Inverse folding.
């Protein structure tokens, strides 16, 4: 902002970023700026406009063309509907959705091309968001920023335990069956695991028998299934068995058994087992 008689010939561009702009009373935050933000009312523009300062009315100010205002807001927030219509007309809204390519590029720069961990993180990112879109909507997908700092399996575990799962609990209002579907470890209504037997579920289900818990049968109660994050997965302060950890993440992807085994070996830095079929063929050739 400036109160000079004319703007500079070649001004330096300045950017003002207002995070979560929709959470405040934008009309009060910007005040007279709401009108002055319009391109044709900037200093040096066709309809240049200068307004008196609230506490110094003898001084007038305007907005130069080199000031750019960026306001960010979460796509899950629908409070844009509550924003003043006049304000919405003065902003251009650009949707920025979760970006798999951005995530992969940044992780590869840090961990290297072809890293099994990078591919795991990217695949988990895609699968989680695909299921969230199916069970909820596209506006509640998980942003790629959640995973940008992942450098190890332990980092990925921390992101899941401290950020992703609490977010899913909020999205689905504690509906653990939907949370388990997103995490690839579904359970039946009776609490029986429907997951691949070789995976290590992130969520565990404990069944409380009515008779065993209360000591008798009661007409008003039934057997109950209680869900919780597996203790060894949730306690990020303590090292978790690497094999179990890898199986937990691969289980989210719901892979075919051969793909599960191959990627397990890659992430565990083991050599892949020999192909039994190709071995038989070679043996057959030698016998012939």
């Amino acid at each position: 902002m400036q109160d000079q008689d004319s703007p500079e010939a070649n001004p330096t561009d300045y950017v003002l970023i207002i995070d979560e702009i929709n959470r405040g009373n934008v009309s009060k935050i910007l005040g007279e700026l709401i009108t002055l933000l319009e391109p044709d009312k900037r200093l040096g523009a066709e309809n240049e406009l200068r307004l008196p300062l609230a506490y110094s009315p003898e001084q007038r100010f305007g907005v130069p063309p080199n000031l750019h205002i960026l306001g960010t807001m979460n796509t899950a927030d629908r409070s844009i509907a509550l924003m003043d219509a006049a304000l919405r007309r003065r902003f251009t809204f650009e949707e920025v959705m979760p970006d798999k390519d951005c995530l992969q590029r940044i992780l590869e720069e840090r961990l290297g091309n072809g890293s099994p961990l990078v591919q795991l993180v990217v695949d988990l990112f895609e699968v989680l968001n695909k299921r969230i879109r199916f069970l909820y909507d596209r506006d509640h997908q998980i942003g790629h920023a959640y995973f940008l700092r992942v450098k190890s399996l332990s980092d990925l575990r921390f992101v899941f335990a401290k950020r992703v799962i609490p977010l899913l609990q909020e999205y689905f209002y504690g509906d653990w069956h939907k949370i388990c579907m997103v995490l690839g470890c579904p359970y039946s209504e009776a609490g029986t695991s429907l997951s691949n037997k070789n995976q290590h579920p992130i969520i565990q289900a404990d069944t409380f028998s009515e008779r065993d818990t209360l000591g008798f049968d009661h007409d008003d109660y039934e057997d109950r299934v209680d869900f919780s994050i597996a203790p060894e997965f949730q306690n990020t302060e303590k090292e978790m068995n690497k094999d179990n950890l890898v199986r937990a993440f691969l289980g989210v992807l719901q892979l075919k058994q051969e793909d599960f085994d191959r990627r397990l070996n890659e992430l565990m830095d083991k050599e892949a087992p020999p192909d039994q079929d190709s071995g038989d063929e070679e043996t057959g050739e030698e016998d012939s």
Notes: The chain has a mean pLDDT of 84. The chain is about 40% helix and 10% strand.
